[in-house]
Write a structure and sequence with these properties.
Strand order of the largest sheet: 11-4-12-13-16-25
Largest sheet: 6 strands, parallel
Radius of gyration: 26 Å
Helix content: 25-40%
Structural class: alpha/beta
């Protein structure tokens, strides 16, 4: 295709018909109209975002109860400075009721509905870069009143369901690169960072040696096949097993619709980010998605394979906030999700999906510690059961949950409120989910993740008792006097009351004699959220075709890193090489 031509958009036609519609031009316009015909074979790419990466809407009932003018429950793309500040000031009870897994669903694009509710206005977060090129996502020509634009086609693929400021660059890059491999027989420049490059440049591990991708290998995959990139949001508040079942239905529909219109589509490739990896694993588990035969392979990005201690820290002390100048996307998420423990607990204690991010039994023992003067007072779990030893522990200052933070709305459970008992039920279900997918990885899996010593993550959580405590005897039962809700507690020692012959909290002590317990900063290599220990479980499983251990990026922004994107494209091509076709 040259500049002296009128390019016609590639069209998806019934019966996979290879035809195109031209348009009238002035007599003096001699430029030919050239169309790109779609191959009959289709290999869709399905992207699954991480926690807080899918946009949610609330039920009409909850919208009415909260007296909110719209039904938006979570849509981070809409947040500007003013709205971020407003969201950051939301009370815990408001957060709890707005982000209720029982009253929220994915905010899916429906152009037949009201524009500001489900149509183009609501999904206005999708904006394509001016240099974006895709033969599939272009404006229809000739343009008519009802012909969809390129942006509308992208929204119909689910691109507006996800945090576009975070994932839009990846979606456009995959769509453009995978469907623009060669021009007049020459490799497109976007592939020069992938083809012929040594995979070790992106961090491939020696245990799983990889050969560079060749031009011929890319031609074999790209010729006769097109790749439609979809983004499927899911309700990250509900169990990832439930989400997998819902995503499976949508994937089946994509495959069925393509086959019904005459194309050949047998399988899809799944690309995940963070918690989306747990959904992806459940997607190929018989108990949940049961799509092991329809998923050709999975590319996992920064997955907390066996959970992350950061989940404990955030429930007790809020999300880490780097500040809008240092990390705008991370700071935005922290402010809206909660800078304080009570704000986070109000949501996560009532969200089965979020609780599934806690460390699993596979994470091992002694990752929650209490220390004094550099020595452990104790550490948990001791017997490999974090659910009973940590998560459901009651009445201790180092327990996961401060029970008074679970239901700030004070509503009864049947109306959207929470209880410690219900949270424990969610934890029991989380244990079952963790055990079910513990060894579940697709046989054609690839992974990349951060192992950066400069991007410190919580490999363990340590409460340090202040040095001014000469004798920590009885530390397990010290009551909390005050809590910053950001990881620092003021505690009271017990003393023996001789007349009553019992231990009682010491009162009347000067404030400078108080005992404090503080959560120490993160110290493990990772990506500031997932520690290398958790991500390495993928490598240790022995079930991956390739693993890329990388540095230089923060968790949420990982797919903006050039090495993460290059290793993803490489992995997709390697997966696509395993495809078999009927025609």
């Amino acid at each position: 295709m040259t500049t002296a031509e009128h390019p016609l958009p590639a069209q998806q036609n019934n019966g996979a018909a290879r035809k195109a519609e031209g348009f009238a031009t002035p007599k003096q316009d001699k430029k030919p109209q050239c169309a790109r015909m779609l191959p009959k074979r289709v290999l869709p790419i399905i992207f699954l975002p991480g926690i807080m990466g899918s946009n949610l809407r609330m039920s009409a009932e909850r919208q009415k109860e909260l007296k909110q003018k719209d039904n938006v429950a979570w849509r981070p793309d809409n947040l500007g400075v003013t709205s971020v500040n407003s969201a950051a000031k939301a009370l815990p009870q408001q957060r709890q009721l707005k982000l209720d897994p029982l009253q929220t669903t994915v905010d899916i694009y429906d152009p037949s509905g009201l524009s500001e509710v489900s149509g183009d206005a609501r999904h206005g977060n999708v904006e394509l870069d001016k240099n974006f090129r895709s033969p599939l996502l272009t404006d229809d020509l000739p343009k008519t009143k009802n012909s969809p634009t390129a942006v509308q086609k992208a929204r119909a693929r689910g691109w507006g369901e996800v945090f576009f400021k975070s994932y839009g660059e990846l979606l456009q890059h995959l769509e453009s690169c995978l469907n623009n491999t060669f021009s007049e027989g020459r490799l497109q420049h976007e592939w020069r960072d992938v083809v012929g490059v040594e995979p070790r440049f992106w961090g491939s591990v020696p245990d799983l040696p990889q050969l560079p991708l060749t031009v011929d290998e890319l031609k074999q995959v790209a010729n006769g096949c097109w790749f439609a990139v979809y983004a499927f949001g899911y309700n990250w508040l509900q169990s990832n097993g439930v989400s997998a079942k819902q995503i499976a239905k949508r994937i089946n529909k994509v495959i069925d619709d393509l086959n019904r219109t005459g194309y050949e589509c047998q399988q899809v490739v799944v690309v995940t980010h963070s918690m989306g990896g747990l959904v992806g694993r459940a997607l190929v588990h018989p108990k949940y998605g049961n799509l092991q035969d329809k998923v050709l392979g999975i590319v996992h990005g920064v997955m907390p394979a066996i959970g992350a201690p950061a989940a404990y820290k955030r429930i007790r002390a809020g999300f880490e906030d780097p500040g809008m100048m240092s990390g705008p996307e991370e700071s935005l998420a922290a402010k809206v999700a909660g800078n304080y423990g009570d704000e986070v607990t109000a949501v996560l204690a009532n969200a089965p999906g979020a609780l599934e991010l806690l460390p699993t039994e596979s994470y091992g023992n002694r990752w929650l510690r209490v220390t004094h003067n550099g020595q452990d007072l104790d550490a948990w779990p001791k017997q490999g059961d974090p659910y009973s030893e940590i998560y459901k522990l009651r009445g201790k200052w180092y327990s996961l949950f401060r029970e008074e933070w679970i239901n700030p709305s004070t509503w009864p459970p049947e109306e959207g409120g929470g209880t410690f008992e219900r949270t424990c039920d969610y934890l029991d279900r989380a244990r079952i989910f963790h055990r079910n997918i513990a060894s579940t990885y697709h046989a054609n899996s690839y992974a990349h993740y951060g192992v950066d010593a400069e991007r410190r993550s919580f490999g363990e959580v340590t409460w340090e008792v202040s040095k001014n405590c000469a004798d920590p005897t009885g530390w397990r039962d010290w009551p909390i006097v005050s809590d910053t809700r950001q990881g620092k507690l003021e505690l009271v020692r017990w003393e023996f009351n001789s007349p009553n012959k019992e231990f009682v909290p010491r009162v009347g002590a000067a404030r400078n004699n108080s005992i404090y317990a503080t959560i120490l900063p993160a110290a493990a290599a990772g990506d500031q959220t997932v520690p290398a220990k958790s991500a390495n479980h993928q490598l240790d499983s022995g079930k991956f075709q390739a693993v890329f251990r990388q540095i230089g990026y923060e968790h949420q922004s990982s797919y903006k890193d050039s090495r993460a994107i290059a290793s993803t494209l490489y992995s997709i091509v390697r997966i696509a090489q395993k495809a078999t076709w009927n025609c």
